[in-house]
Amino acid sequence: MTEPLKIYRDFYHIDANDYMGIIKFYERNSLLLDNKSTFQNRDDFNDYVSVLAQYVISLENLGRYSKTIKYADKASNIIDSRADNYGINLMEFTTYWSILTSKGRALYNLKDYKNSIQVFDRLLTWDKDNDNFKNWRDAAKAKKRNSINNYLYITAGILLVSEIFLGDLMGIPKVKLYMSGIGLLLFSIALFNDYFLGKFLKSNKNK
Prior knowledge:
mainly alpha, 9 helices
């Protein structure tokens, strides 16, 4: 088995932008790296977390989003559990930020907008002026809003079309009225959310 110190030395010889090289390196040594749970000191911990963070970043950059989230959770859990032991202030630990940023973008690309928003909201509590975090958070919010609108439009359409056929079939006049009323209400909500709320948020952002 490769010794930890040699692994770190080998890792630091890889270009940080060589994402495939970093992924291959990690997976070649995954037996040791995946099962490491104890650290000799703060330096050992920092080296290990750096390897894990670069692996997460590389996975995200190459579009391996599910695996990005899995290892981002692994890395953040390790950092969370050892922060007090090693005197780490999470708000100032940029490695932690990098891991969460990759996780937030991976969630966004997997269309998990709700959790992506939560990640970037957390990052923005630490750096409220970070435009990159704001842009990703706002994009996730817009996508989430669009997803909701799509469901509203589809449901409204189904109700309005069904009202034409099922209302007469069931022979209950009130059923037609309820179905058309609910359909029009959902359509109006979607339209408001899509057009007026969207315009308001855009204008507010540009101020």
